[in-house]
Specification:
The chain is built from 3 helices and 8 strands. It is an alpha/beta fold.
């Protein structure tokens, strides 16, 4: 991937400073090596069609987009990137607990279950 491609991807998926802090905290608490990148993705299923996936991965796949956001190396597979384009990963705290949340302009509606792409009807009705 050339520098221009990396810049374009980095502008498409963002991480807030609060989310980055929590990612680094999780990495440290679980003794995950710094060489492992954050993997963002989506998978089919759940009550609304897709759900978000976060984890750590040692190696990128050949088709992954690789970029830096808030000092964290991120891997996103090409199929997930079309769903995550323009999204921001946040870490939120509230009366119902705390956790990661994707603020995604591609979602028409989102469920409390963390799934997205509910559309009309479905669980979000």
């Amino acid at each position: 991937m050339n520098e221009q491609q990396e810049q374009t991807v980095a502008q498409e998926v963002n991480i807030t400073p609060e989310a980055a802090k929590e990612i680094l905290k999780i990495r440290a608490e679980n003794q995950i090596p710094d060489s492992h990148a954050l993997r963002m993705g989506v998978k089919e299923g759940g009550c609304c069609g897709i759900s978000y996936v976060l984890g750590f991965d040692e190696k990128a796949a050949e088709t992954d987009k690789i970029f830096q956001a808030e000092g964290i190396t991120v891997y996103v597979d090409a199929a997930s990137l079309m769903h995550l384009s323009g999204a921001t990963l946040e870490f939120v705290s509230g009366p119902n607990g705390s956790g990661f949340k994707f603020d995604n302009p591609n979602d028409q509606k989102s469920c409390g279950c963390g799934d997205s792409d509910c559309g009309d009807g479905g669980c979000c009705g």
